Amino acid sequence: MQIAVLLYDDFTVLDAVGAYELLGRLPGAETVFVAKETGPVRGDQRSLALVADKTLAEVPHPDIVLVPGGPGTWPAMADEEILAWLREADATSTWTTSVCTGSLVLAAAGLLKGRRATCHWLSLEELAAKGTEATGERVVFDGKYVTAAGVSSGIDMALHLLGRIAGDRTAQIVQLLTEYDPQPPYDAGSPEKAPAEVVAYWRELAQQSAEALQTS
Amino acid sequence: MQIAVLLYDDFTVLDAVGAYELLGRLPGAETVFVAKETGPVRGDQRSLALVADKTLAEVPHPDIVLVPGGPGTWPAMADEEILAWLREADATSTWTTSVCTGSLVLAAAGLLKGRRATCHWLSLEELAAKGTEATGERVVFDGKYVTAAGVSSGIDMALHLLGRIAGDRTAQIVQLLTEYDPQPPYDAGSPEKAPAEVVAYWRELAQQSAEALQTS
């Protein structure tokens, strides 16, 4: 079982690493980080780079495809080399997955048309505009397509996938070994729970960014 | 405000990245990944390397020190260059922090003597044996020393720290933007909650590993 994690400039590092840390512990699985070119790929905070060990061309048929999100999503959606690789990999994958705005890249490749999927809460409208039934759920399964909400939700997605692939007991062992017993000191992790003015502020900012992109 | 994340061979990637993803969003902070040498440092699953941009010598006085854990903890505890850097950095740091078995490295540097601290649940006894009051809590503050339990707990630690440094509102914004609204499909993330036979099996395995290390 080969797991390919796609890297591209300006991805959100925890999108990739949260899911990888748990899913990579799948017994018998080999994980490979892939990008257009091998070498360091810098995340959106710019202070951390992850190393891609293989090019896209070297990993044409992974069993599991994992696409992180981040500000680099928008250039990635317009990158024909990335989209072509996703279509080819998806043609033979067992699972095609994403975290955060990674689902926008899958949608841009034409893989989520008419499917139920999720995304970072700030990008659900854009996901819907791509012909996808965008839900606000944290993890969405639609056939072999598995999408997760923002950033940290990749951890929950990985546990779900581990359970489906290797059984509940294996997933529970991985949860125990990664001590995933969340105890956040605040309860502000979704737009339904966060202070209303904070949510409104970020929605406004996202709207302005989208408009700026369209007129640039 | 400078945040230094220590990397060493065989660290657990999510230990570093979970805390980094949230804490790195601290307004005005600059994060730098440091290691004995610059370049890729491979994590414990071997399939992923993070890039250290600076050597230890280049970052002698960070405001926040963050030490991840992992299987590489034990060699790191015996590495005088790493221990000397930690002592020097700690002498002027505002916060000295760890995730998972990273607290064993802080203890090996003599920084946790008599202090309350936490660790991955499988290594609490070893932490206590180093003269530390080892608690099983998820995040422990003792003065400027902040330690977190296993792997994923660095995310909770980062939120606590963000609140202390920048206030509750900033921490809530970061929680919302990283959509940290955990919904694990199982409730097996601590030894109190996981199936008893799973916990017993891993305790036995850890005991055997410790004995093998002592006789090797």
UniProtKB/TrEMBL annotation, chains A, B:
- Residues forming the DJ-1/PfpI domain are 2-162
Example of a GO biological process term: regulation of DNA-templated transcription
Q: Has the keyword Cytoplasm been applied to this entry?
A: no
Q: Does the keyword Membrane apply?
A: no
Per its UniProt record, what InterPro entries does this chain match?
Class_I_gatase-like, DJ-1/PfpI, INH-QAR
Database matches in Pfam families: DJ-1_PfpI
Name the keywords, alphabetized: Glutamine amidotransferase
> What superkingdom does the record give?
Bacteria
Q: Which PANTHER family match?
A: ARAC-FAMILY TRANSCRIPTIONAL REGULATOR (PTHR43130), DJ-1_PFPI DOMAIN-CONTAINING PROTEIN (PTHR43130:SF2)
Protein name, entry field: Glutamine amidotransferase
